[in-house]
């Protein structure tokens, strides 16, 4: 796995993306050359911004393919059927994006003849590239061999995660090295015993292991093989902590197994002035753009709410923001005016009877969240961040869930990593799952991760709905 701005990216997906960008830009030049082929030589059209047009074309295709989930590759399931079903819609979406770009920036426009050839060539190139990646994935080239240190409940959970990790990476579990103080929770035939006189490095080399995952719950008592692990690292074998393994494979930080020292001495949690300034500029730019684009939708929504249930159109509610400060979040009203008769806050359920007909639609399409751009422009929220919760629930969750207050170290967001990765939640258990994604975002937040969240949000709203 690669780390780009603290976020884990599969080497396979990064390589595929890089290869496809080259194919798309090359296809643009090839299509233009064929279009203006005069019988003796290839001649490119005289456009002042030809390379920029090629980059815009490549960006439109990559964005469309990302929005349709074409870079979420599952090697166990294969890529054949989903890939061919998604390729044509992604090209259609890219065509719409290019039409809008050409309307805004006419200098980047190129003719329909070039566009038809470019789409044909690039489509063929992408198909061939993906088939090559699929064929490679069927071999053992992408397979990583693991040894887990430990044989208890944590080691079992890590092993089960490795077996499920079909996205981007394949694992072969060579076995589990037992620790004397732990109860055996893994299959007996998977245990690897160190014979007298043999080191952990020799055992790893015997099984051709490339990574050792330390999955021991209790590291006290003198049974933890720290010297052997250091020797493995010195001999080029990657040594990974179980918390880092979970973070890498699930894009979560597990609150039930994380050690405070790991949070303190590990990387991430960038709260520098430069990061804060870049995030604020990003928030303002995206919010103003969204406000401009969505203004007609917001006006129609306000009219629909008024026709169904009269005023008020908007709904203001207290939420907890950065550093525990309470502010009032602004949303389109999606529930009846007497939704909480008793005055006691309630979790919003998936099929909540308090939701109006218009409210049901705007909640599925996330339109009810649009007025929160005002909160972003006021500086109370960011565009991307943990979703703000009500003070009543924050008090409960802070007492019951470890590290819950960590999510308040940054501004809350209209959308977030937990929203695009987990979806709807209406219980304490769901809050824990979302917190684990929020902790990952707080630890690894960056402009790059914000862009990924926005692409995933677009995919959720347009192609999947719900939340």
TrEMBL record:
Keywords: Membrane, Transferase, Transmembrane, Transmembrane helix. Signal peptide: none annotated. Its main location: membrane. The keyword Iron-sulfur does not apply. It comes from the Bacteria. The chain crosses the membrane at residues 12-30, 50-71, 83-104, 110-133, 284-307. GO terms for cellular component: membrane. It is a multi-pass membrane protein. It is found in: Membrane. It holds the Pfam family Bac_transf. One of its GO terms (molecular function) is phosphotransferase activity, for other substituted phosphate groups. Residues 279-462 form the Bacterial sugar transferase domain. Belongs to the bacterial sugar transferase family. This is Sugar transferase. It comes from Pseudoduganella armeniaca.
